[in-house]
Amino acid sequence: MKSLSLPIATLAAALVLAGCDRDETPQPRQAAEPIEAVAVSEAPAESAAAFIARANAEIDELDLEQGAASWVSVTYINEDTAMLASKANARVGELMGRLIEESSAYDGAEMDTETARMMTMLRRADYMPKHMSVPSDPARLLETAEIQSRIAGMYGAGKYCPDGPKSCRTLQQLSEVLASSRDYDAQLEAWQGWRTVSPAMRADYRRFAELTREGAQELGYGDMGEMWRSGYDMSPVEFEGEVERLWGQVEPLYEALHCYVRNQLSKKYGADLVAPEGPIPAHLLGNMWSQQWGEIYDLVEPYPGVTNLDVTAALRGKDYDAVDMTRTAEGFFTSLAMPALPESFWERSMLTRPRDREVVCHASAWNMNPAQNDVRIKECIVPTQEEFETVHHELGHVYYYLAYNHLPNLFRKGAHDGFHEGIGDTLNLSMTPGYYARIGLIPAQPESEESVINQQMRLALDKIAFLPFAKLVDQWRWGVFSGKISPDQYNAAWWELRTRYQGIVPPVERSEKDFDPGAKYHVPNNTPYNRYFLAHILQFQFHKALCEAAGHEGPLYSCSIYDSREAGEKLWAMMGYGSSQPWQDTLEASIGTREMDASAVIDYFAPLMGWLEQKNAGKTCGW
Ligand SMILES: [Zn+2]
């Protein structure tokens, strides 16, 4: 999802912000000197509503320029586009700093609910460049932005080069080894190799934590983690409690899955390499971060040989190209009575990797010009099930944009960021064998108990295996940003969490010379991660509610909301609120509850859980 800005506040931003002479107190807005025409200490010249209207207009205008500059900087990577993007980003940073400063003049003032809500939105991490809390001191502001930009660059350019430049391998190539090789040592080398890119980030990250803490304190937060946790219409402490509560609901299912997978790996690699009790070596789960395990399905398939839904084979067999796949995904949304994608989407999106230039292939969705519904995706689509699901994920963002683009800028966000991440994934849950047969991709096949368990296992390897990882990435950052995790414990604390929640261990000894968190995209790029945890819970909750709306009868896993106007209308209504009210109100208005709830996850996977319990009987689970 497109955030307000990429990195790099340049000197321009630093110079402009130099106009605000703030002292070191935690609430600088109260201490700001009224240097400019905006009289912060006196009654402001314009009403709160007029200020917010102007803020929306100013952000809108700059978003256009920043969006365009950002788009070309990732679809035509070169020095020129990087410079243009960084200039535009700096202007956004400057604008947000100024607007937040100006908004403080209305602290405690009477205003209507809508205006007050937009005042709150203005200070949320969603509107900060790169979700960063930067200090206002010009030199420090610049330093923060430069660090973020530098470590993101290290990640982006990262390669493992064991024997000189000709031996270099990219993340994609190393990931391919983990996905397809079953050779313990080859996988180990790939796993270790990628982690050679991140130790260089370590000192920078330490400084980054200090600087953003300073910035957060100026905004009235304890640290950047607290700023992130403040975006959920509840206190940061309550939010932490919510995450724990939801994790508690799904933990038994994760542990059962872990237990069975560990046993299969132990059979494959031998008990000396994978002990049948204890944590699993992190490099054997088919994924660079052990976050989704779908690639080792062949090792854990419950009923080998029982017909399984092979979407990749079907896409290849029918010669689906990137446009076909995107059109098919669009077709799902239009079957829910949502509008067709605008023509400009097809003209301006990047659906394949260009042959003649460098691009960022990491899939993303862009709301370029809301007034004209200029929405796009950027993805390097190849015909695999994973990419096909990713297209739906990205179109989930795009349809969210289309649903709320009528709102003012400060309401054009998800109800919370987990909602935004969960929409496309909700549709993925409806991509059942019955659905594929209906769209003619795979012939109809009789359902058997075996095929259901196979299907559930495949899904659980991605959706359930992901949950503890999705939870702990930010738990680690919260600790780092607040200082509870000290710099000499960065890597140890990371692995402590990885072992505690995921039940995995590093396959080779790690030390504080390493910086393994930095080998995950979202850390150097400073993208909050809890949204993915919430999205993975919410998508099942949404699925269940929408299936009820669609009049589905039978087990939850067999439901597809494809072609249900009733389900589509609920989803469209939910998205249409944007962030204009607390997410609890939006959830209640659309699906009739004010609480996030993981019981639909348990409900959905009931057949698999029953099967796992049988398989795990007599074994010691946990680690
Ligand atoms: Zn997303």
Structure description:
By secondary structure, the chain is an all-alpha fold. Among the domains are: 11-154 and 202-231, no CATH class; 311-449 and 531-609. The chain is 55% helix and 2% strand. It has helices at residues 11-17, 28-31, 48-75, 79-103, 113-122, 138-157, 171-180, 184-194, 202-218, 224-229, 236-269, 297-300, 311-317, 322-335, 343-348, 385-404, 417-428, 433-438, 449-463, 466-482, 490-502, 530-549, 565-576, 583-591, 599-604, 606-616, and strands at residues 280-281, 364-369, 374-378, 504-505. Strands 1-4 form a two-stranded parallel sheet. A two-stranded antiparallel sheet has the order 2-3. Helix 1 (11-17) packs antiparallel against helix 6 (138-157), helix 3 (48-75) packs antiparallel against helix 4 (79-103) and helix 20 (466-482) runs antiparallel to helix 21. The longest helix is centred in the middle third of the chain and has 34 residues, at 236-269. Zinc ion binds at residues 1, 393, 397, 421.
What layout of secondary structure does this protein have?
Blueprint: H1 11-17, H2 28-31, H3 48-75, H4 79-103, H5 113-122, H6 138-157, H7 171-180, H8 184-194, H9 202-218, H10 224-229, H11 236-269, E1 280-281, H12 297-300, H13 311-317, H14 322-335, H15 343-348, E2 364-369, E3 374-378, H16 385-404, H17 417-428, H18 433-438, H19 449-463, H20 466-482, H21 490-502, E4 504-505, H22 530-549, H23 565-576, H24 583-591, H25 599-604, H26 606-616
Parallel strand pairs: 1-4
Antiparallel strand pairs: 2-3
The structure holds zinc ion.
Features:
623 residues; mainly alpha; two-stranded antiparallel sheet; 26 helices; 4 strands; globular; binds zinc ion
